[in-house]
Design a protein that fits this description.
The complex is a heterodimer of chains A (468) and B (232). Chain A is of the alpha+beta class and 468 residues long. Chain A contains 17 helices and eleven strands. Chain A has helices at 2-13, 15-54, 64-67, 80-89, 128-134, 144-148, 165-170, 174-177, 252-255, 263-271, 291-305, 314-317, 319-357, 359-368, 372-406, 431-457, 461-466, and strands at 57-61, 97-112, 117-126, 160-164, 224-230, 236-247, 258-262, 280-285, 309-313, 411-412, 421-422. In chain A, the strands form two sheets. A six-stranded mixed beta barrel of chain A has the order 2-3-7-4-6-5. In chain A, strands 10-11 form a two-stranded antiparallel ribbon. In chain A, a hairpin with a 5-residue loop joins strand 5 and strand 6 (236-247). Chain B has a single domain (7-229), classed as P-loop containing nucleotide triphosphate hydrolases (Rossmann fold), CATH 3.40.50.300. Chain B has helices at residues 49-56, 79-89, 105-115, 120-133, 149-161, 179-196, 207-210; strands spanning 7-18, 21-33, 38-42, 64-69, 72-73, 90-93, 167-171, 199-203, 215-220, 223-229. In chain B, helix 6 links the parallel strand 7 and strand 8 (199-203). In chain B, helix 3 (105-115) packs parallel to helix 5 (149-161) and helix 4 crosses helix 5. Chain B is globular. The two termini of chain B are 16 Å apart. The chains are: A alpha+beta (468), B alpha/beta (232).
Chain lengths: 468, 232
């Protein structure tokens, strides 16, 4: 009781010095908190972007990940429907999975021959309903889909889809797709609406005729592209593709090459009249933290069934995510270390001055019978209290600043991103960060105070009493 | 029947090392301080009075010799045990009062009792009682900076005596007080010594205080040159 009372009163005894110490710690705490929350926001935003786009875990034919992207037709999953069923009905995986869906990744050439423009593309064949559900994933309640204006994929017509805004610009579709900030190019934006669905200059003659009945698309105003790719038999194949919208993926490389098409259309393009396969099966889980459990179970299933498949998770599929997380974590660690050193020296300095000023008091207390550890405890408690008061103040002010930042409507353009993203800091689900900073600074202050406290306790009583 | 002495020194020497130089502060001192008496240690500056008082108060260790305080061989026990011993048996009154500035008069007086693990109600009762004895019950909530020099020394006396120690050491307790206040403090200590039956050992130059002495130990150049004992 006495130790705490004396500690608290001694902090108030030299108000100016204590205030400066507390202020320094509070500023350090605030910096750590806001930057920590910003880093946390970057982590979850990157995670959300990647998970909505490519799920948590992908299943491929063995070897596809390292060798197959140049020849996806050769690395297809033959009986993908039964694999899908196996995963979807597994009692362990079922409660963990939000979406399990087949995908096709392919490369080809997209041509808008009315504008005399063509461009290599990266095609993503998806089941629209699954794709739309995947884009609703928002474990961290960031509402990024609303910010980026992501629109659902057309579920009614398999010839319709979306492309990246960059690809839209390159192929001269600025006008019809109403791409913001896109000026008309020479030779572009001509003859876009083709009610007949035909153009006099295209390579649709190369189209491998399908046995399937051709759907009758709603071709009212959607501009048409011709997509050319090589089939599994290495023959060129072409499909007509109608662009509903140009969407931003946030990353310029994606925006300049992405074509999101119906899974059936992608199968038609990649396999022609051959066996319809899937290149991958994507699993989107409810929670990212379930990746290890889900992947372990998947590999167990693959092994049990003797399937020639491999699994890859988020950090392998999106190495940039892992690199960005590592980079920001390193910066945060560096800033935390700098702040820790500042707090350490601030406390050591304050407590050393306190010990020097109170040498007589130390001698008196020791003479009255206070043990060495009692003196140590007294000064350590004062240092810890200073640290914790400063950290508490810093957390309160930092939380208020974070609230202001989040409501200021600021944006920033992260490295590698094509469009500005909201400048926000994560304020929910960061209690562990706040608690960590609070406890960390408390422990640091205690350690910092221990040095002068130990020196105080080791003073000879007669020297302390005779100190002038 | 004569009581056992409260302090016994047997051939006690204290040598301070200042780098290569050895400075003898006490040289082969042997003495016995009687119980329940008003004893004075006299001597000029630098004679070793404070060193002697520090030894008696177990604040410093001798270089040679044996010291027994309140029946305990104090030179041979650990720092923790000696702290407990001081907390229980020895009260200090300092020249500069040495009150804890962040505690009130009552809290200063109460502090030694917390070191003995005494309960709050008993602390309250004993603390207020002794503050009343020194005439400061109305100032119990005052901080040291709100008290005069004489009042501070009264609080220091109350703090030294509140635990009922066997021995009270006072290093020039009237040196920082005017003569009138010093006289009232001496009267108070004399009265309280009688009331509580404690042994007081002073170091002083104050003739007023010396006139109250029952035992006088004169010391010069670290050596005990005279022990004079008078009846009360």
């Amino acid at each position: 009781m006495n130790t705490l009372k004396i500690a608290a009163r001694n902090i108030l005894r030299n108000v100016r010095r204590s205030s400066m110490t507390i202020l320094a710690i509070a500023v350090g705490t605030m910096s750590m908190l806001i930057f920590g929350e910003f880093v946390a926001q970057v982590f979850v935003a990157l995670e959300t972007q990647n998970v909505t786009r490519s799920g948590h875990i992908s299943v491929f034919s063995s070897g596809y990940f390292n060798y197959g992207s140049g020849n996806p037709a050769a690395y297809g999953i033959h009986d993908y429907r039964s694999v899908l069923g196996l995963i979807a009905e597994d009692p362990v995986l079922k409660p963990l999975i939000n979406v399990v869906t087949p995908t096709i990744n392919l490369f080809g050439i997209a041509g808008n021959f009315d504008a005399e423009a063509s461009k290599t593309f990266f095609g993503l064949g998806v089941i629209p309903a699954d794709f739309n559900r995947m884009h609703l994933w928002d474990e961290h309640q960031l509402k990024l889909a609303a910010f980026y204006g992501i629109e659902p994929l057309n579920e009614r017509d398999e010839t319709h889809g979306q492309i990246g805004v960059g690809l839209g610009r390159i192929l001269g579709l600025c006008g019809p797709l109403k791409i913001p900030g896109c000026t008309k190019q020479q030779g572009g934006d001509q003859m876009i609406q083709t009610p007949s669905g035909q153009s006099k200059r295209d390579f649709s003659a190369l189209e491998e005729k399908s046995d399937r009945p051709t759907s009758k698309p709603q071709r009212g105003v959607a501009p048409r592209l011709d997509l050319l790719a090589a089939t599994a038999a290495s023959a060129p194949n072409v499909v007509n593709f109608y662009v509903d919208k140009a969407v931003s993926q946030g990353v310029k490389e994606y925006d300049d090459s992405l074509v999101i098409m119906n899974f059936s259309l992608a199968q038609q393009l990649l396999y022609g009249r051959g066996e319809r396969q899937a290149v991958g099966i994507v699993l989107q889980l409810h929670r990212t933290e379930d990746i290890p459990v889900a992947r372990a179970r998947l590999e167990q299933l693959i092994k049990e069934k003797g399937l020639d498949l491999e699994t890859r998770e988020l950090t392998e599929l999106q190495p940039f995510y892992k690199q960005a997380v590592g980079m920001f974590a390193a910066i945060f660690s560096f800033i935390s270390a700098v702040m820790a050193v500042i707090v350490l020296f601030t406390i050591v300095n304050t407590m050393s001055m306190s010990v020097m000023e109170r040498t007589h008091e130390i001698g008196t207390l020791r003479a009255m019978g206070v043990k060495k550890r009692g003196i140590t405890a007294q000064f350590v408690l004062e240092g810890a209290l200073l640290g914790l008061i400063g950290a508490t103040l810093g957390l309160i002010v930092g939380s208020a600043v974070a609230h202001i930042v989040n409501h200021a409507g600021l944006t920033w353009q992260p490295p590698g991103q094509a469009v500005p993203t909201p400048l926000k800091v994560l304020t929910h689900g960061v209690s562990h960060l706040m608690f960590g900073i609070w406890i960390g600074l408390g422990v640091l202050s205690t350690i910092a105070a221990w040095v002068p406290a130990h020196r105080a306790a080791r003073m000879k009583i007669v020297d302390a009493l005779g100190h002038v | 029947m004569r009581e056992d002495p409260v302090v016994v020194f047997e051939n006690v020497s204290k040598i301070y090392k200042m780098g290569e130089v050895s400075i003898p502060a006490l040289n082969n001192v042997s003495l016995k301080i009687p119980n329940r008496r008003f004893s004075m240690v006299l001597g000029p500056s630098g004679s070793g009075k404070t060193t002697l008082l520090n030894m008696i108060g177990c604040l410093d260790q001798p270089t040679n010799g044996k010291i027994e305080v309140c029946g305990e061989r104090v030179a041979e026990i650990s720092d923790d045990r000696i702290s407990e011993f001081r907390a229980r048996n020895i009260g200090f009154i300092f020249q500069n009062f040495n009150l804890i500035p962040v505690l009130s008069a009552f809290e200063n007086v109460e502090y030694p009792l917390t070191l003995l693990g005494m309960g709050a109600s008993e602390r309250r009762e004993r603390g207020m009682s002794i503050l009343e004895s020194v005439g400061l019950s109305d100032h119990s909530r005052h901080r040291p900076n709100q008290l005069s020099g004489g009042q501070k020394q009264r609080v220091a006396i109350a703090r030294a005596l509140v635990k009922g120690p066997g021995l009270v050491l006072a290093d020039e307790p009237t040196a920082n007080l005017d003569s009138k206040t010093g006289a009232s403090i001496i009267d108070l200590m004399y009265k309280i010594q009688e009331q509580y039956g404690a042994t007081f050992v002073f170091s002083t130059h104050d003739p007023q205080l010396i006139s109250h002495a029952q035992d006088v130990f004169s010391i010069r150049d670290g050596e005990l040159i005279e022990h004079r004992s008078e009846g009360r």
